[in-house]
Structure formats: structure tokens, C-alpha cells
Write a structure and sequence with these properties.
about 325 residues, alpha/beta, 9-stranded mixed β-sheet, 3-stranded antiparallel β-sheet, 9 helices, about 30% helix
Amino acid sequence: MAADNPVEVSIDVFPYLRVLKDGTVQRLGGTEVAPAGLDPETNVLSKDIVIIPETGVSARLYRPNSAKPEQKLPLVVYFHGGAFIISSIADPKYHASLNNLVAEAGIVLVSVNYRLAPEHPLPAAYEDSWAALEWVALHGKHEAWLKEYADFGRVFLVGDSAGSSISHHLALRLKKSDVGRDLKVLGIGMINPYFWGSDPIGVEVTDQFRKKIVDNWWMFVCPSDKGCDDPLINPFADGAPSLTVLACDKVLVIVAEKDILKDRGRLYYERLVNSEWPGKAEIMEIEGEDHVFHIFDPSSQKAKSLIKRLASFINEANAAVV
């Protein structure tokens, strides 16, 4: 009996994905699915809806089961991570983490399911996310849960990893758009932000192995010949918009001690506080943890501390305008 033909790999994007010689895309993680519904541990309700029928972009909406329509809650628009190539709103790890955040912060949350590369090359993820934000501003007020429970005057953009990069770029576009007039974005929460650049900084100088891995991630999805200095991933590259146009009052940057991306998050925070942006920036570092550890183990004590800090950030900014 003849042996099966061995799998021929054309592109290996370790540890997330590989493309076979025949063009088949094999995702090696982030493909699991958890259904929406009532989470008994947190008493948080969720449901899935298609928000951009033309592209199939969907969202998972969350709210506390105990929420009353007369008490409008802050609205968080959330963008998941996964290097723009894996994961979804139905990923069980994200679902568990967002249930925890909604319960802790007492918020309504819209988790955006943008399309992934390589099937949908960048900037598709950014454009899908912007379209989702437009939907929240223009049509979300007619969606039952958002209409009844969400306060469109108290909005936050939150994301982890690639989702943090998305949040940053959306906030840059808000000021000159109708969306920015329809939604009052008070703050941005960035968890382990995925920013990068060609020239190594901090730990990247000595950790050349992981530097090359992250280079490989971006070069796989990079839409231009600027590589790791494309403004989509390097907010300080030539041609990148000024941080002064960020359309929010507060930014929280959360980094992890063992994360190869931590120095980019620190640099973002430092550049922000030293810019002419009129808002307030804060930074939190989690000791002894690596990139998006809170997604992989949402029940750990440090993950709970991260969620509490993010919830506090949302409610502090919220209290300032109430």
C-alpha cells in the first residue's frame, strides 16, 4: 500500500499558520469555537450578529444579565488579537476573558470579528474594524441590546496585541469623521500592543530569535514594500499620523515583562506622554508573564488583576463625565 503523500509546506508562519504548496491555509491555533449565550459563572449574556452583510463581518455582543434598561452602561468596542491571521470572536479563550471583563466592569461590549489574512490581506482587518465602528455609530442605536443598555456618550476602544494596533488606528481616524461626532470615545485600552519596527529596540537587540519570528509575522501580512516600518505596524515610521490627533482623553497601555513586544508598548506610552496630545496616558507592567497570558489563562490571579485594572480604567474615565 503506497504511503500518503507528505504535506508540502510553502510558507511557515510559526507558530500560528502554514500555507501548503497547493495554497491551502492551515491555522494551527485559534480555530476553536465557543457558542454565545448565558455564562453561568459570570452571569453575562452574549449573542452573535452579522453587522456588515457585504463582507460578512460579524460581532459578539455582551451585557450583564442583571443590567436594567434604565441604567445605561459604558460601551466597549473590542478587537481581538492573533497577529491578524488567527482567532475569532468565538475563540473560547477570548469568550472567557470577555465574559470576565464585562462582569468586572459592568459594561456592554461589542467584540468585532474582522476578516483574517492571508485570505483577506491587510488593510482588510483595519477597514473591517472601521466599518464595525461606523455600524456602532449609525446602526447600533437600533440594535435592541445597544439601544436599551449602552451609553453612546461613553465609548471605549479596547484590544489586545493586533487589536491594540487596530484601536490606535481607529482613534486616529475618529477626529475628522462623522463617527467621531456620533460616538464619544473616552479612552483606549491597549493590552500587549502589537507595534513593531525594522530597527531593534530594548530586548529585541539581544533576543534575535524572537525578533525574527515577529518580523516573519508582519512580513507575511504586510501590504506594502515598507515592511516592518509600514505605518500600520510602526506608529513612528515615516508617514505615520501624529499621536496628537488621537481622539480620546485617556489611554491605558498594559505590557508584560517577558513579552518581546513590551518595549514597543513602553515606547508608545513614552512618546504619547511627551507629545502635545492633551490626554492622560497610563502604563501597567505585569511581572513574570508573556504575551496575552490573560487570554491563555483568564482565571489566573494576574489575569484577574489585569482585568480589574482595565475595568477600573473604564470606570474612572466613565465617572469623570457622569
